[in-house]
Design goal:
single chain, 3 domains, 5-stranded mixed sheet
């Protein structure tokens, strides 16, 4: 097999209206963050032998350019802004402009081993959009519920109408999520398989399908770290601080937490595990995080091995 060419890193700073890029020490520029501008950038990158774009998550403005780069066969690494800023501070770099950030992203890619973005198929992308919409509706409903207790008679009538409207909208989008999964054979099979575990419902299975394409494809330890349910050590000398989970995909972790609360009561095996940990003096939150990690690992094994059977 011929040797793969070394990637040539390109830093791209993304804003709502512009894309600033740095392809080398001597070549940099910008283009508009619209269809013609993105096409212009992709055409420029295709003249590079093995381009690898490094860009930050930018509140959603990165979605279109990342999708178009992947469709063009260009490698992309999507990085957390906080980590890039910490890298800048380590370099002693305090200035910040779009052009400086593009150069910084290029150096960050050259120095740090990063995970490539994996293409998300169209069905999973649509499912993610529906789940995002549902989450926003649920948050709005929670805000209305919180205002209800302090509302006067006039405002209360308006809030009741808004509450009813949001509940109808949530029910509608949940039907759309169900129908979308049911119409896709692959999604339907995986969803049904995951829901064989007590405590796993349609929302958790849909969330995992949308946000964790690695599920069933990688080992459980790195998967736990990706989702953010792997505890990290914080020891120094004789001091051994409690382990905490951090980072990861919060959209998944939030839903997984509620599923673990349910499983700690409804799933006999997980409930027994929860009670054993509590009997050993573990705080309730530590017990629930352990259940979250266990559920994720078992679900991962269920999708990896079709013949894997759950204990009852």
């Amino acid at each position: 097999m011929p040797d793969q060419p070394q990637p040539e890193y390109v830093g791209v700073d993304i804003s709502s209206s512009r894309l600033d890029y740095c392809a080398s020490d001597t070549e940099e520029g910008n283009c508009s963050n619209d269809a013609p501008g993105r096409s212009q950038l992709i055409a420029r990158l295709k003249r590079i032998t093995a381009p690898r774009v490094i860009c930050e998550a930018s509140g959603g403005y990165e979605k279109l350019i990342v999708a178009e780069l992947l469709a063009a066969g260009i490698e992309v690494c999507l990085v957390q802004p906080g980590r890039v800023r910490a890298f800048a501070y380590a370099e002693g770099l305090l200035a910040k402009t779009d052009r400086i950030d593009a150069r910084l992203l290029r150096r960050y890619g050259q120095k740090i081993a990063l995970r490539l973005v994996q293409p998300v198929d169209a069905a999973a992308a649509t499912l993610r959009e529906l789940l995002e919409h549902r989450r926003q509706l649920v948050e709005q409903l929670s805000e209305v519920d919180g205002r209800m207790a302090l509302a006067g008679a006039t405002l209360k009538k308006l809030l009741v109408k808004q509450q009813a409207f949001l509940k109808r909208q949530i029910a509608q989008v949940e039907r759309m999520i169900h129908d979308h999964i049911d119409q896709d054979p692959s999604l339907r099979e995986k969803s049904q398989r995951m829901q064989q575990m007590k405590g796993v419902g349609p929302i958790l299975s849909a969330t995992l399908l949308a946000y964790v394409p690695e599920l069933g494809r990688i080992e459980s330890a790195p998967l736990s770290a990706l989702v953010g349910v792997a505890p990290h050590a914080k020891d120094s000398g004789k001091n051994q601080a409690p382990r905490h989970v951090r980072g990861g995909r919060w959209q998944v972790r939030n839903v997984l937490y509620m599923a673990a609360v349910s499983a700690s009561r409804s799933n006999p095996i997980l409930a027994a595990m929860y009670n054993r940990l509590k009997a050993r003096g573990k705080p309730p939150m530590v017990c629930l995080v352990a259940l979250m990690r266990k559920m994720l690992c078992v679900l991962n094994r269920m999708l990896q091995k079709p013949d894997f059977a759950l204990a009852h």
